[in-house]
Each structure stands twice: as C-alpha cells, then as structure tokens.
Amino acid sequence: GVDVISISYGSPPLPFYDDPIASAAFTAVRNGIFVSCAAGNKGPDPSSSTNGAPWILTVGASTTDRSIVASAQLGNHATYDVEILFMLVNFTSMQLPLVYPGGRNSSAAFCLPGSLNNIDVKGKVVVCERDGNMRRNETEYYVKEAGGAAMILISDKFDAYSAILETHVLPAVQVGYATGESIKAYINSTSSPTVAILLRTGNKKSAPEVASLSARGPNKVSPGILKPDIIGPGVSILAAWPSSQENITKTKATFEIADGTSMSCPHLSGIAALLKSTHPDWSPAAIKSAIMTTADIVNLEGKPIINNYNLLPAELFAVGAGHVNPSKANDPGLIYDIQPDDYVPYLCGLNYTDQQLQTIVDHDVQCSKVASIAEAELNYPSFSIKLGSSPQTYNRTIANVGEANSSYTHQIVAPEGVEISVQPNEISFTERNQKVTYSITFTRSQKTSASYAQGYLSWVSTQHTVRSPIAVSFE
C-alpha cells in the first residue's frame, strides 16, 4: 500500500474546505498515509507559504554545502567567487573582453531575443541581468547565438548574495545581485574591461541557508499553526528531467539542476519513508513530530541559519522548526502525536460551518456537539501565539518513544518581551509509549517595539533534546 505522498505543488492560500490538496491530504492521513507538500516559491514575501494545513508537512527550501565554484577575476584584479555548472572544458583561463550590453538599451540588459544583434559581443564575456520570464539557460542561447564566448548572469535583487543554478549551454556563471553591481561598476570605470573565469571546487560552511525563493509564514489560513514546518535541500538539486537541457538529442542522461520547494519536498518525503520503514507503528503526525523536534537550528559553523538573500539570521517563519536532520529524527525520544479525529475540534475552532468541515473530513460533523479548541491547543510540535495583555495557557501531550526509564527537564529560550512558565518542571517515564501532559503559559512581560518575537521550548534528557519553536505575534 501507499505510505507517503509527496506533492510538489500548491495553490494560493485558501480556506481548507476550498483547498483540494488540504482535503485530499486529510483523507490520506486518516488512512495512515504521510503527506509532504512544497511550501511554495513566493519567498521571501511574508505570508506567502501555501499548503498550511496542520496534517501536512510543509517544506521550505535550503542550500547545501556542496558547490562547484568559479572565480571571476576582473582586469582590475578584483576576484569574485561564483557558482557554475558548465565544466569549462577547454575554456581559456586568460582574460577575455567583458561587455555589459545594458548600457545601450534596457532589453539588451536582459539579453532578450534580438537585443544583441547590433552590439559587438563576439568572443566576449557578456554580462546579462536575469529576466524572470525566461529560464536562465534560455538567456544563454541568445548570447551564444550572438557570438558571445561566455556569460555572467546577474540574479535579481532578492537574490542579492545568492546564485541559483541550472545546466548551461555555454561557459556561464551566475552571480548574486550585489556582485553583479560591482562588476557593472568596474565595466563603467574602464574602456577595456576584461575578465577571466577560473574553475575550482569548494564548500559552504554557512550552509544550510534559507533560499530566498522559499515561501514564508505566517500561515495566512491558520495563523495559530506555524508554517513552514521544516526546511530541506532545495537549491541546485540534480533532478531527473524529461529532455536534455544541453542540446544533446541522443542521450538517456536527461537531468536538470533545479531549485525550489518542489525539490526540498521530495527530500522530506524520502526521509518520512525511511522513518516509516524503521517505525511502522508511527502515525503520520508522529513521523512529522520526529522530523520537527530534532531539526537543526544552526549551520555547519554552529551559527544561526541565515537567509541567503540578506545574510541575516532567518526567522521561524522562514525555517519553521529548522533544517531536517534524518539521523536524529530516527530517534527523537519524545513525540507529539495527533489522531485524525483530533483535528475536528481544531477545525470547529476555525469557525467553519458543519458543511465546510464535512468537505474536509468527509463525514457528518456538528460543531455544536464538539468542544472546539483554539489553534494553539492542537497537539502540534510548534507554537504560534498571538499574545495580548492576558496570559495564555495551552496543554501538550508527549509520548515516550525512547528509553523506557527516562526523565526530561525543560529548557526555555523565551521570546523577547514574553515570560514562559511550564508545569511540571520535570517529566519522567517508566515505559515506552507512556504519555505525559504538560501545560505552558505565555505572559507578556514588557512592552517591546517589535511586532514579533521567537524562542524555543526544549525537553532535555541525557540522550535527547526535543525542541519546539515558539513564534509570538504581539497584539
């Protein structure tokens, strides 16, 4: 039978009763099938994340630590590290003439079809700005057609410090927006600009970073559920493709370097399948909890995960619980489980009508006979709170899936301006699958100028750290 469904697709945020993916995913989860969905590629705009139902694992995109790096060495000896996908076989390492056609007309800046016809680019390295309506390697065709020897493609402003790769049809590098501005300034400073492109390998110690394209929260449909849930590899991923992207017609090696949450989603789906094979008795919510509560919140340098478009620490609305760590997810210690019927009080709490709710759960429900709950009361592995002057208390139930005899104490990183208390201070288990309920109270401790703050609650034993992110929006 089916254990995991991976959906690299999403519509604009819709109420769950109008969202066919949300309804279909609920049916799948009710039948024990884990559902992983892409968060979308509308980042870094706030509230751009889609597939926000709590029974779905919503996946954002991150970079990896592997890269193929070239150095673009300008004639003034300034050198910039950029990523490439063209192997530079038999390509000269000598300085070549460098040209930015955008100085002539705006369409030439993007190297649009026909825009290079009256510009001397033959044998030169051509600097082109990215046009969001064209694929990057499509731009290269027009440069190659005009006689260009190579291309430097400048990312748009949101990708200021990042380059997103695809396969190439001529020697080409892609640079972030800030680097592109520096290269254009150099071209304007001399009558004979030149550049040499040199290949080398490298890795990124700042990885993982949140991809600029990765959609962000808050969750527009259900603000009390933090989305996205998790991030995973979604930039410069070697993916199967229906046709060759390198103008090679007689080949079976049809692959593409692709980016987006459509790439990160299958990574998480695969991890979920591995967890299901190791723990066949775990529910979809248990698997989701294991993935979220063991996620990494620091990069390879041990520093907070950053956005790759501004190099600043990423908020929870970008990373969710953090970056997936498959090995730790296999042994989470504790899990927050949710059964399909547990979502009904939550849906009633969204003030859906009985008919709207029945569209989702596919059976008769009368909310008047159900004790509805607030969004934050759902037994979710994260917290998303809208906090005013009154304290708010919520309950969570955790199940022991680690050592039979184990004890956990809580550790709190409180959001700025918020006081958090947890009862009890310590929880103990004497057997596997034993459940314990705790309460957590949020109180505004001081006025802050910020509209948002974040923190963490962790349950810590000698073997495990079970971490839940806390996002607080102030009223």
From TrEMBL:
Keyword terms: Glycoprotein, Hydrolase, Protease, Serine protease, Signal
MF annotations from Gene Ontology: serine-type endopeptidase activity
Signal peptide coordinates: none
Name of a matching Pfam family: PA
Presence of the UniProt keyword Protease in the record: yes
InterPro entries in the record: PA_dom_sf, PA_domain, Peptidase_S8/S53_dom, Peptidase_S8/S53_dom_sf, SBT, Subtilisin-like_FN3
Presence of keyword Hydrolase: yes
Gene Ontology CC terms: extracellular region
Family label: Belongs to the peptidase S8 family.
Cross-referenced PANTHER family: PROPROTEIN CONVERTASE SUBTILISIN/KEXIN (PTHR10795)
Protein's name in the database: Subtilisin-like protease fibronectin type-III domain-containing protein
Species name: Citrus sinensis (Sweet orange)
